[in-house]
Amino acid sequence: MTADLIKALEYIHPSDCDYQTWVSVGMALKEEGYSAEDWEEWSRRDMARYHVGECRRKWESFRGASSPVTAGTIVKMAKENGYMPCGTELEWDSVIGLKVEDEIINTNWIEGRELEGPKSWNPVKELITYLETLFDVEENVGYVTESYKNEDGKYVPRKGAYDRTAGELIAELNKCNGDIGNVIGDYHEEAGAWIRFNPLDGKGVKNENVSAFKYALVESDNMELDRQNALLRELELPIAVLVYSGGKSLHAIVRIDALNYADYRKRVDYLYNVCSKNGLVIDMQNRNPSRLSRMPGVIRNGKKQYIVDTNIGKKSYDEWLEWISDLNDNLPSVENLSDVWADLPELAPPLIDGVLRQGHKMLVAGPSKAGKSYALIELCAAIAEGRRWMGFDCTKGKIMYVNLELDRASCLHRFKDVYEALGWEPRNIDNIDIWNLRGKSVPMDKLAPKLIRRAANKGFIAIVIDPIYKVITGDENSADQMANFCNQFDKVCTELGCAVIYCHHHSKGLQGGKRSMDRASGSGVFARDPDALLDIIELEVTDVLIKQEVNKAVCKVCEGYLDGEDYGLDDALSKSRMLEISRKRLTSNRMKDLELDIAKAEKAVKARSAWRIEGTLREFPKLAPMNVWFDYPVHRADDTGSLSDLDAGAAAPGWQKAMGARKSKEEKAGDRKTKLETAYNALSMNGKVTVGDLAEYLDITEMSVRRYIKEHGDFWIDEGEVGRKK
What we know:
By secondary structure, the protein is α+β, with helices and mostly antiparallel strands. The chain has 24 helices and 27 strands.
């Protein structure tokens, strides 16, 4: 057993112990059958406090106690310093404390920190500061000024000096009148000079010549300097001196204060793993305690090697290790249900009544051209104004719309178009912030921290991200990758305390026979992750229904022109009767105006599309399907129930539809022309139309679009842009 506790004592330095702790170690050794010599040998490591004979005298006074100090006291102290009992000492490549998957900082948040060079160049002061910071006056310092070019033309340091103390060097530097070469020797300015950061025994420069394992070198030459500077500081490394190498890297001399070489290896390995896991790409060849680093106060290839900063981060390795351990577990505590049963926390208030709570997530899914973006813009307006959306009351508050798809002008015009189409006064448009990112979007794991920074302390109760295909990271069909992607929305919700609402497209193929939560493209994670899913699917509008809607629209236009006129209730429901009455009672000029407005109304009705919205909710009862018209640019609820009996797209078997939809070549060509004209007219409202836009609108290939245009004859194509011939 003696060997076990003696081994454990290697991890406890007597200088770190107060008097009572030192006595407790002695009492534990005696209780476990050790000798006074064992205690004295250990105590001798602190020569500043060691007194010959003191251990023996104190040892004799230990006469046992009812609650004796035992081996557990020593083992506990040793384990806190990295001791692994039962013969489980770690190897050089082992990792302690930090799990591979753990991260201490989010590197996406880190912004570069520029270096500030010395305001006045004082080489002597630079080198003295370095020596005074790292070495005791009696410690030997290793340094190299002589170098030679290797076969690759690179300057390589020679063995250098190692038998002069820090005190001797500082004294001579103070008398050299600024000529450090007169103290340490001249160096090649193309190469610079080097220095060893750990003290030596004066007999050589190998690892076995290191007399105290005080520091480790952290260096990265594969990252921008300002990012290195930021990461080194963000990680709170206990850096004694931070030196600019005059090249591509910073040299951080980090406090390790290891007891011996074995302890040094463990601590450096842990340090390197933390750095690597948190985005600092470091040079792994710098592990050795006798390693050379760049000497401040010299010139290297025209650039100064200088001290950037001293004594930054945590004060010691142990303090840093404790900080890391605290950060490494940010999970909430386990709670017992009986403790909160009588005082349950309040539920988050609704954002969209009956659909979504504040701080939760909602996905709006649908096919291309279902007006998803317009629906989300309508929602932004409803929240900003505290009005209804799709028949649901919305809580009034501030909202941010993250636009990833539209150009800035088109996006802003859409907001105004929606307000005007809804007939709402823009009383609270200051509640709407818009972040236009078309052409500048980044993956969601990079966007989330940027979004959180910009939205912090702005008081948003909701953030809309439209659409998410622009920021998806990983394989859309991979469950684990999409789970990680969706976790970014959780981060936004948690950090900002607001709801996140986003939209996604349907998968390819027929959707009518699928459940609402199975229609979104990609992994099922998309449908199962949000707290609310609203899925939009197109309804097949019959010719009879279109005729009925045209009749209603014409009657409504006529009513406006016949304001105050007397006619029957049955007349108001008949297009032919209302036109007949209008012709009798209106002047010819008024009749011409009426006919123009009727033509506009009929065109608008025929341009409408019908949709059914189905919901899957986590926090509220099942949502009854809602039917709406997309009456560009807004969705209007079907208050009359005319859409309730319609089938969703592809509800009937494909072969059955094909049998009833066979057309002649001429009819098909006519349909293609009509589709092309409809698509062009719809897209041209937003400005320039491209072949790609038409292909997406029509859900066909760009090659097919070009064939349609050639067949039509009234359109031109120029470098992908499409226009109508004059």
